[in-house]
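Supplementary Note 3. Input sequence used for the single-chain structure prediction.
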Amino acid sequence: MRELQVRVPALPQEWLQARGYLVHIGGWTLEEFLRLAPENQRWEFVRGEVIVHSPASVRHQEIVGWMATLLHLFCEHTACGEALLGPAVLLVLPQVAREPDIFVLPAGPVEEGPGGLILTRPRFVVEVASPSTRRIDLEDKAREYAQASIPEYWVLDPDEPALYQYLLEEKGGYHRQHHTQGWVWSRALPGFGVQVDWVLPQPRMDIATAWEMLQQAREGGV
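The predicted structure, written as discrete structure tokens, is reproduced below.
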């Protein structure tokens, strides 16, 4: 039986920056991942490899919490679905299981597989990039989410700062838009939007004010 304990070797900093994650462990199956991955750590499975991410920073958690709160309010108000957080595991492709920072499932029953694996395709996914995950978020996950036909994907990059919006095209693949200011409106969640400077700088706008401004903008047709 496979042991869960993993020794992380000392790796060159250049390697860590290039690979974009703490360590990867080959030779796993999806079934082993679902059975053994710890619930309190961020592990993902990509084509036979387990990816163990670095612990999230306070800034990362604050941004995720802010955006998740706004999405929860919107989903409850509009009954458009349910906003969930990682470490919930989403089966993106047959051999790719990711733990998005935030994702919105459509309204209705949720299909689950072994180990709590979520099989229902989300309408909308949000990742908050960090220096170690920026390439994965902007390239690897964008490619996988497009292949999975997820209608819309946002990457919040606080270091730039910018919001990258990926919209699924009819012919397949994403069209990427780069936003550094102003309103960004979702196509997959009609009526949901943010202003870039609400969420990325510090201090962030308080959530009650942001929710009120979003409602006013929806009613005013901004």
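The first strand starts at residue 23 and ends at 25. The helical segments are 13-19, 30-36, 58-78, 134-147, 196-199, 207-220.
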